[in-house]
Structure formats: structure tokens, C-alpha cells
Amino acid sequence: MAQLPHDPPVAPAAAQYVERVAPEACLRVRGELSSAAGAELYRAVQALLAERPSEVRLDLAAVPRMDSLGGAWLVRVADVLRQAGVPWRIVAASGQVQDFLQLIRPTLETPPPPPPRRPGFFETLGEAGFAALEEARDLVELAVDTIYWGILAPLGGRGLRWGTLIEELTAIGVRAVFIVVMMNLLMGLVIALLAAAQLRQFGAEIFVADLVGIAFARELAPMMTAIIVAARSGSAIAAELATMVVQEEIDALKSMGFNPAQFLVVPKFWAAVLALPALTLLAMFAGTLGGMELGVLVLGISPQAWLRQTLAAVTLGYVLHGLLKSVVFGATIVFVGCHNGLRVRGGAQGVGRATTRAVVMDVVLLIILDMCFALLYEFVG
Amino acid sequence: MTVLIEVEHLVAHYGERCILDDVSFTVHEGEILVILGASGSGKSTLLKHMVGLLRPTAGTVRYHGQDLIHMEEEERAALLRRVGISFQSGGLFNSLTLADNIALPLREHGGFDEATIQALVRMKLSLVGLADAGHLLPEELSGGMKKRAGVARALALDPEILFFDEPSAGLDPITAAGLDQMILSLRRLLGLTLVVITHELTSIYTLADRALMLDQGKVIFLGSLAEVPRSTHPRVRQFFQRQPPARAVAATS
Question: Contact A113/B116, CB-based, under 8 Å?
């Protein structure tokens, strides 16, 4: 067996399959061209390249068969030789090997595709900016469509879809009653417990009633309810619309001359705008009840005294403030859910992403809106 | 001819409904067996039973004499690695690029190094004529390209048998004919055995060594295409002569 003139970069265990035909730059492969023979050939070619040959020949006459792994090694050999700029050819392949070579010839002859270009910093920034602009435009468009089809068109005598509205009211409102009441009841209890621990130091336990009443009317009932509805229905809306987009149902609607906002968004919009204040009102009662439970059972205050104290503290203004807020929250949840659903890209994973994004966006927007209301109330009255 | 798969007295139900009723046949090594039949005749169900995705009510499927149904889970997984399936709509993972879709079984089962995997992926992609499309996501592909990509992934582990569910459904005649030619050249060059489900007459005539026709879960024809004219079953005649069902004829005349 001919000795390799130079040490190959990776020392071959033993030249079992590949033989150098000196003095030309010719490598003869013997036996089945599979994983082992392929690896050896690859190393032999690398070693051969150190001689700077003008042409490399691979003699496959003694190869009875080859498989995909052998093919993969040949592809790597071809890449190495192409990079080195050395012309090469395969001689004397026959039978199955020739068929196989014919099959993979395009791969042997073309360089690997270049890795996709990564965009630079400013490109990424610009793209994000344009994407944000586009998203804002989509959102405004959706809002305009919804207001048109939800308010103006019905006034002009083009009716709402009452059946769907009732269904949505049930889904968003009625089915949420139990969980909203339960959560606010417990929340009322916790808030009262927390306040009592502080106010007891001053002997002012009765003011726990004021605190719980005002907190629930202004902040906690609208917020808790909105978060529960965002988790229950905001996610459902996004998933439903996203699935409809993926399955081309939205395209079908459009092709029949329906506006998706009219058909899908408006009923949900009205349902949420009606259901949220109703749920919030329930939540206010539940929270107050939870606080009273603690007041009566732990602080030993009579229910009548607690109620009187609560009614004196909670003005109609607070309640209206809370209810108005809940209306805005309801509209936000529907817009965000529909918007994310309609913008879905990709298949099953896209639906998941749209749903997650809707809920996260809901929670963030709810808190920002809540803050705006608080500031407005403080400074404008 | 060596027998590769034996299906014996296969019976399958979806709930109360009987989908396959006592189906028996064999697949020989190196042949293209076309399973055909009207929509809802149980073709896809049969394929899912043949690769162990569904369990039959009764009957067996044997590969090289080994019972697929009553096999240990690991044994079955090892066996199925030698089986490629090209699903009706590609069955590609939407979150992965084409190259990663094909690399997935290689990475999980193969134990190859990354450079070898990349070379294998390039080879498989160029086999199905998608050499430049490796970096694309499935959603960026047309229907025909998705099918080709599905084939490339099915071929990733060099299967000895390839199941092909409706290769030409939803494709234009030119693309469909191209796909049929690809199937033939794969068989010639890789020595694959193919089980193809289709109801396109042109595909059947181009591909089939033998054909199996199902009707309401029963085998009503099994044999080479030359034997079709000799069949006396009315459904077989209707199918190959593209005649509408008897009732529809009465309604239109």
C-alpha cells in the first residue's frame, strides 16, 4: 500500500478502503462506499490537497455499492475540493454506484447554499419600527370598522346580529359570573384582613369598611374583573380568530362580501361592553361582602353598622368611575383579542403565539389605562 | 419475489362504523402497489394501520414476518425507522425550516455529526428538486413544494419502503406528473418499495405495478392493471371508466 507523502490532518486509523495510486493524484476506493470508507476518503483527499495537485481523480471501479452516508461523505469531499479550487472527477463507477452518483450529481456540483444574511442593527430597528407602525394602523382600522359596523350601521337600520350577540354575552358574561364573584369575595376578605391589621392599632377597625368599599368601587372590582375576562375570553377570542384565519374562514367571509369586523368583532365588542360593567357591579358587591364577612366574623362589627359605614363612604361617583372604566376595559380586551387573532402568521404555533400575545397585551394595557384613569380623576375630578 | 408486508384479515372500526372489513394482501419488495378507491372507502385508514398509527380491531400486519401490532414499543419504533411516510399535506413542522425538518430524524436517530447531516440534507433536498429551498419555512412553500419536502423528509433515514398518501391531490396536472416521475426515479435509483394511495387515474396508470381497490372497507380488486378489464365488479368498471354512480346517471338523463 502506497504511503501518504504527508501526514493527514486527522491520522487515519489504517487505510482500509482507500488506496493512493501514485504518482498521479488518484485515490482508489475499495469495498462498499458507506460511512467508514467515506470518512477515510475524506481524510485522504484532505491529505492529498497538501500536494497542490492540478486535478484529483477518484477511482470507484472497485466499489460494488454505495449508500446515502457514502454520498454525504462524497458531498463533503466535493465541497473541500471546490473550496481548494482543484478540479476533480470520478472515474469508472458502474452499476448501482453510477446510478447513485447520477442521483446526487446536482448536489456534488453545486456549492452549499450560503447561510441566510443576518440583518444589521439599523435594519432590525427600522423593521421593528415599520412593524409597529403597521400594527398601529391595523388596530386603528379595526377600531374604525368596529365603530362603523357596531354603532353607525345599526343606527342606519342595518341590524346587529342579535343571535350571535346573545351567544357572546353568555360566553363572556354569564359563564364568568361564578368565578368573578368567587375571586372578588376572596379578594375582599384578604384586603379587609390586611387593612384591619393596620387600622386596629388605632382602634379604627370600622374604617376597614370604608377602605374595602372604596377600593372595590374604584379599583379592585373593575381591575379584577377585567383580568379574569382577559384570561377567560381575551385568549379565547384571539385563538378563535387566529384559527379562523389559518383555516381560511376569514378569507371565505371576505369573499362573500362580509366585513370580518361586522361579522365577528362587533358582537364580541357589544357583548364585552355590556357584560363587563355588569360583572364589575357584581364584583363590587362580592368584594364588599367578603370584607363584611371578615368585619362581622373577626372584628365583631355588626352587619348593619358595616353596611351603614360602607354606604356613607362609597359615593355614586366612585361607582360610576369604576363602571366607566370597566366599559373601556371591555372594549380593550375585545380589540386586543381580535387584533392579535387576525394578525396571526403560521400554523398551530402562530395560534399559540397570538393567544399569548393577546393576554400579555391585555394585562399591560389594562394597567396603563387604569393609571390614566387614576391620574385623570385626581387632576380633572 | 420477496414479501415485505403481509396484511391479514384486517378489521377496523371508528366507533360503531366499520371502516375496514377483512382486508388481506401482500406487498412485494421493490414494487409499487397503488391503493385506490373512492373518497371514504378506507384508503387512508388502511395506510395508518399499516404503519401502526392506529390499532386494528382484528387482524395483523407483518413486516418481514414480524407482527407489527403485537410488537414491543421500542421494537416497533426501530422498525418504523425503516419506513418513510409522506403525508397528504406534507406533515411538515411549521416552526422549522425545510432543512431542519429533514435534519430532525437524522439528529434524533442517526448519531451523525453536523457536517454529515448538512450534506445528507442537501442530498435529500436536491433529490426532490428543492436544492435552494432549505432555508424556507413550510408556510413559504407552494402545495407541490410542500409535498416534495414531505418526501425528502420521509427519505431522510433511507427507508426501504415509502408510503405515499395522495401524491397528486390538489396539484395541477403538470406538477402532479412531475411528482409521479420523481416517484418512479426514486424507485429505480434507491430500490424503494412504494405503497401509493391515490384516486387519480393518470397516476395509477403511470405508477402501478399492482393495484388494490377498496370499496366500503372491502377489497374488490387486487392485481396488475392488465387484469382490470377482466374484473366483473361494477365499481371497478365504473372507477376505471370514470362513470358516475348509477343514481346520478338517472338524475341527469
Answer: no
